Amino acid sequence: MPGGFHARLQRAWEVSDSALCVGLDPDLNRMPEPLDGRPDAIERFCIDIVDATADLVCAFKPQIAYFAAHGAEDQLERICTHIRDNHSDVVLILDAKRGDIGSTAEQYAREAFNRYGADAVTVNPYLGTDSIEPFLAAGGGVIALCRTSNPGGDELQMLEVEGEPLYIRVARMVAQRWAPLGDCGVVVGATYPRELARVRAEVGSLPILVPGVGAQGGSAADAVTSGADATGRGVIINSSRAILYAGSGAEYAEAARRVAITTRDDCRS
Amino acid sequence: MPGGFHARLQRAWEVSDSALCVGLDPDLNRMPEPLDGRPDAIERFCIDIVDATADLVCAFKPQIAYFAAHGAEDQLERICTHIRDNHSDVVLILDAKRGDIGSTAEQYAREAFNRYGADAVTVNPYLGTDSIEPFLAAGGGVIALCRTSNPGGDELQMLEVEGEPLYIRVARMVAQRWAPLGDCGVVVGATYPRELARVRAEVGSLPILVPGVGAQGGSAADAVTSGADATGRGVIINSSRAILYAGSGAEYAEAARRVAITTRDDCRS
After folding, report:
1. I need a surface site. Which of A109, A165, A250, B123 has the fewest CB within 10 A?
2. Residues A165-175: what's their mean pLDDT?
């Protein structure tokens, strides 16, 4: 795939004029009725959602846990191939939150970039710089967890380190140590617009992936306002469940498209 | 599999009288000559190592990255089934370092405990308590990264929080918040015996998984001395590469067994 993560993301923002990312979290308990019980339900569902929303988004973000739980890695491979072959201007982010020592990270880099053909993979910062170097050395992008929107996100991320919360130290580590090595970004939940603005101040023009819009309660418009960079871009606003499960009958793809349009427009406003 | 992680680990320590865990990190670039190029090389290699060392260990720890890089999840499933069917007293730890919000963690719990039948899974603490609750609610064990032995481990883990390094706060979070919810443990690298002793003082009788012995340079004897609990047990000493790649010819399983015996005896001394 030509171009690194940052270049492809810049182009995706321009082509789509959208900050929206659709997260692919295919929950077998919530499959629309026409797919229920089909062995290829995960693949069919994700491809239908992808095709119904591709012109509205800058990125797709499959969450690998939903595939791994059901031994559906082969379906994920085919979904990724479908995205790359049919929607080549859309960035592909593998949401896997990898974090391991260097020799193991090399294997995860191969998984993300060679096997699935992702442009970037989400990573966990707890093991430090050498745990992400293999991803950047392989030419792919990494997006590091910084401030997450789940209830327990405070427990470590808000601990005070030399007068600052830990998540700010993580943002600075990414901006100062990791960014010179390759194409990086950070994850900050939509439910904390003020913290999003603080992270933006630390990371300059690095892209920020913002989950927590929609089902998790964050506002897309607030997230864009708080997270945008100096050019008005810079954010990838993820919505998963609110779009995926907008409809439960035969019209699930159309229902997803309607919610995706609303969310994209919220991001623009 | 009857019994929770802690009960099964206690029994494994008693049956084997060994603190040794063999890590299954099957690197296709280091396969012994007789297996080189075989499509089932990963499975054959791991099962041969397992059968050659099962009476010497308390646990096996497959590192999922080495399987995911090559689309070999089906081989990992068969290796796990082989361990459970043939060496049922040995604990099975899935080394996956999962860490995600609750709804995603439910999927990872299903992967670890239902798909692979693991007794415990390694997890990353950065997202806090709700990111691990689904694993414990599913009845499986979690082993949280605390202090890692890689070069970048210092970058976050040694940051000072209220006069203590962050990894001590993580150890306390596991002991105080997580342990009441289910069977927990922590990961502390063998290359820091003094820090291992500090973590032991925080976590009481929780098991400590200690990687970094062998190829990574830590001493097994020092790790046991520093990490043991009041009963003289409490540690799971992992060695991967030094055992797996002890031989490169037809005698790789025998060579692995010889190094495993030496390492087990180091742990006892």
Report:
1. A250
2. 98
A97 is catalytic: yes
Q: What are the chain A neighbours of B98 within 8 Å (beta carbons)?
A: 65, 97
Interchain CB distance below 8 Å, A65 and B105: yes
Residue B1, pLDDT score: 45
What domains are there in chain B, each with its CATH number?
A: 5-268 (3.20.20.70)
The whole-angstrom distance between B107's CA and the closest CA on chain A is: 5
pTM > 0.80 = yes
The residue among A27, A81, A126 with the most chain B CBs within 10 A of its CB, best to mutate, is A126
**What average pLDDT score do residues B113-117 get?**
98
pLDDT, position A217: 72
Q: Does B117 touch chain A (CB under 8 A)?
A: no
**ipTM of the complex model:** 0.97
What is the pLDDT, as a whole number, of residue B149? 87
Q: Tokens 């098991």 label which residue?
A: B207
Catalytic residue among B82, B97, B169, B177: B97
Q: Do B155 and A128 touch (CB under 8 A)?
A: yes
